[in-house]
Specification:
alpha+beta; 7 strands; seven-stranded antiparallel beta sheet
């Protein structure tokens, strides 16, 4: 089996994630960011990370630009979590999107968030061909989320 792509964050990115997560927790959303909490698959403790929820054709998605990260692995086991901006907490369930159905969602995600995430897509951008985005799809898990509130 091929090794799954995962780009670890460096110290600076980790510190920036902490700041963005704290801001979201206190009600300050930077361009739509939210703090996601998902139960750890081993620890059972809630793990928090800032995310960029992405809306495509009226549905909301969570996309892992960095690949098969810890939150992705936790989400696959937990099947959902919480999104928080300030006091507003939305519980959600998550369904992983098959690679063959990611093209339009990934392209629009890269159009919206490319300035922040292009570095993790190894040369693939919103202007890349369909074939290039499809080839990158297995490295970037996508979850369709349904909020309960």
């Amino acid at each position: 089996m091929a090794e799954l792509y995962y780009h670890r964050s460096g110290r600076f990115a980790g510190a920036l994630n902490n700041i963005i997560g704290r801001l979201a927790r206190h009600g300050v959303s930077m361009m739509g960011t939210a703090e996601m909490s998902v139960r750890g698959r081993r620890s059972g403790q809630m793990q928090r990370i800032p995310v960029n929820p992405h809306v495509y054709e009226g549905s909301q998605y969570l996309i892992s630009a960095r690949g098969h990260s810890q939150w992705v692995r936790n989400m696959r086991v937990a099947g959902g979590g919480e999104l928080r901006v300030g006091r507003r907490i939305r519980t959600f369930t998550a369904t992983e999107v098959p690679d063959g159905e990611k093209l339009a969602v990934l392209r629009t995600y890269l159009e919206r968030w490319g300035w922040e995430v292009n570095q993790y897509f190894r040369g693939v951008t919103a202007k890349s061909s369909d074939a290039e985005i499809i080839a990158a799809a297995p490295d970037h898990p996508v979850f369709l989320i349904s909020t309960d509130s």
